[in-house]
UniProtKB/TrEMBL annotation:
SUPFAM superfamilies: MFS general substrate transporter (SSF103473). CDD domains: MFS_OFA_like. GO terms for molecular function: transmembrane transporter activity. It comes from Candidatus Lachnoclostridium stercorigallinarum. The chain crosses the membrane at residues 12-35, 47-68, 75-94, 100-124, 136-156, 162-185, 221-239, 251-271, 283-303, 309-334, 346-364, 376-396. InterPro entries: MFS (IPR011701), MFS_dom (IPR020846), MFS_trans_sf (IPR036259), Proton-linked_MCT (IPR050327). GO terms for cellular component: plasma membrane. It is found in: Cell membrane. It comes from the Bacteria. This is OFA family MFS transporter. Keywords: Membrane, Transmembrane, Transmembrane helix, Transport. Its main location: membrane. The keyword Transmembrane applies.
Length: 407
């Protein structure tokens, strides 16, 4: 493969475009009301499809990473795309809850989980000089997706019905991602940009020992990072999953205004992804991660006193901004700690922590509300999890330094 100055930017463009399409799960809730009304399903039964999707999405990540490294990123993407688009198309034929769970939850979830670790880690390998900013821009693509695709999905639902809309979107995803997958090529081992002079820190990162999965899981720092990832994501998803009901029940806003709050949080989430990409390149991983967790914890404590609309907007802006940076910062850190050779599969494995956190956070928040009639205890627990995650970050940093000294 001939490498030119445009090669890595072509890879970035391909990854960004696929990220825009495969973020479709963020607007799956648009199908809830029409499909529940059509088939008489309960909203809780329907929402379980999303929970299954997220679990499968995170659980199969390391398999997608292995496929990307053993075959080629584009091969893993094409395999995942058949499952992802196929799952959406099959969802258009779902007339029972079990069918919905298999089509959307299992098949589409497995497809997205195969695609993700073949894309972001591949892009970051091409940008050792600006891992943070590229991670932020790619993750911003996932945030842009719902903004662009949600109105289109709603228009399709209104015109053709929910099931036909699923089929149309599945075809759109198949064409859209399939058209750019060829652009995503693997970065040769040891490649660096022409004329780039790495800093002392970047030089150390380039010479990091490469750990495969069996070697990685034997390192205590892996388990510390996994638990920290679970805590950090649970702390964020507690609020993200309940923004609308909190706005209505605690602040007394109308359903329409509460929906606006959800949109604003999504917007600040996108800003956080972009901003923390550049912050990462300045502060580096550990300090950036601590900053994210500090902002998240403080914003949760602020929410305990939220009573006015303006103050609530400030709180959710901080929550969205900090939570948006979590994946942006965490992704390149795995490469720094465990090396780039097996990065796709290693990141795919540790990404399971994201799925566990995404499952635990909303459940804890809903449980406290059902028990106490208030979200305050959920905020406090979220702040405690953020504080515990900060402690784990400090421990992981010490462990990583010790690992580097012993190699």
């Amino acid at each position: 493969m001939k490498i030119t100055k445009a090669t890595r930017w072509r890879v970035f463009a391909g990854v960004w475009i696929q990220s825009l399409f495969t973020s479709a799960t963020a607007f799956f809730s648009l199908f809830s009301l029409p499909m529940c009304n059509q088939f008489g399903w309960s909203s809780s039964d329907f929402s379980m499809a999303y929970t299954i999707y997220m679990f499968i999405y995170c659980a199969v990540g390391f398999l997608g990473g292995i496929l990307a490294e053993k075959l080629q990123p584009r091969v893993a993407i094409y395999i995942g795309l058949v499952l992802f688009a196929g799952g959406w198309i099959l969802t258009g034929f779902a007339d029972s809850i079990p069918f919905l769970y298999i089509a959307y939850g299992v098949i589409a979830g497995a497809g997205a989980g195969t695609i993700y670790p073949a894309c972001l880690p591949t892009a970051l390998k091409w940008f050792p000089d600006k891992s943070g900013s590229i991670s932020g821009l790619v993750q911003a693509g996932a945030a842009c997706g719902p903004f662009i695709m949600s109105p289109i999905a709603q228009m399709l639902i209104d015109r053709f019905g929910a099931q036909q809309a699923c089929i149309i979107l599945g075809i759109v995803f198949l064409i859209g991602v399939g058209a750019v997958a060829w652009m995503i090529v693997p970065c040769p081992d040891g490649w660096t940009p022409e004329g780039w002079v790495p800093s002392q820190t970047q030089t150390k990162e380039l010479n990091t020992k490469n750990y495969n999965i069996p070697q990685m899981v034997k390192q205590p720092v892996f388990w510390v990072l996994l638990v920290m990832f679970i805590f950090a994501n649970a702390a964020g998803t507690m609020m993200v999953s309940a923004t609308s009901p909190i706005a209505q029940n605690q602040i007394g806003l109308s359903a329409m205004t509460a929906a606006l709050c959800v949109s604003l949080m999504t917007l600040f989430n996108m800003f956080g992804r972009i901003a923390f990409g550049f912050i990462y390149d300045r502060l580096q991983g550990w300090n950036s991660l601590i900053l994210i967790l500090v902002i998240n914890g403080l914003s949760m404590l602020m929410l305990t006193a939220a009573g006015s609309y303006a103050y609530f907007i400030l709180c959710i802006a901080l929550v969205g901004f900090s939570f948006g940076g979590l994946l942006v910062v965490f992704a390149p850190m795995i490469k720094i700690i465990f090396g780039s050779k097996y990065y796709n599969r290693n990141y795919g494995l540790i990404f399971i922590g994201y799925g566990i956190g995404a499952f635990v956070g909303p459940k804890v928040s809903a449980s406290f509300y059902d028990t106490t009639g208030s979200y305050v205890m959920g905020y406090i627990i979220s702040a405690v999890l953020a504080a515990a995650a900060i402690i784990l970050v400090l421990i992981a940093r010490k462990m990583t330094e010790k690992m580097a000294a012993n190699t």
